[in-house]
Amino acid sequence: MTMANAMFFQLLTIVPFLSLLLLSPSLALNQDFCIADLPRGDTPAGYPCKPQANVTADDFYYSGLATTSPPAAPFNVGVSSAFVATFPGVNGLGISAARADMAPGGVVPLHWHPLATELLYVLDGTMACGFISATLNKVYTKTLRKGDLMVLPQGQPHFQYNLGNDTAVALSSYSSSSPGVQVLDFVLFGNDLPSDVVSKVTVLDEEQVKKLKALFGGSN
Fold this sequence. Notes:
The structure is a single chain. The chain is built from four helices and ten strands. By secondary structure, it is α+β, with helices and mostly antiparallel strands. It has a five-stranded antiparallel β-sheet with strand order 1-2-9-4-7, with no helix packed on it. A five-stranded antiparallel β-sheet has the order 6-5-8-3-10.
């Protein structure tokens, strides 16, 4: 077999595989939507679809952001979300939302969303908002007022805190129906890693670590 013939037969085996890759987005578009069938559980490929015959207008509607929970200690902020687990209509659409109400002195602590970029819009009040670049370890912070937007790139640790004397309210949208969230305080102190180990890896006093574990629900 000549080299040209060998290359030709290699292409014959590769082309069908490439065709599947190219066609898969189009195949996904053959279904207009996929309301999450929450009782059937999440999977690595996402939630299975609710049978379209059972879908109603209510599946595309959610009122959970009309109000939010009372400010919670120790951050003095109330949060409500419209992720796929509470709003099945966003399943598979690459979008979701959340609302944060920060009382005076309230803080949204340092956290990150491993699966989504966040676009934050200020509905009321004045707040500081910033993120820390993972590669440069540089902080980007802005003072935001009513009507302002700030984008927080996927996976970057970020925060907000109220700068005023009245409640500050922000609405965030995300580039995933399930953006995920990890809060630094709970990552460090809401676990069962022994306090002496946390003290070593954070260079914090062990007694302070124990106090913080008690505050954030950790043990050991």
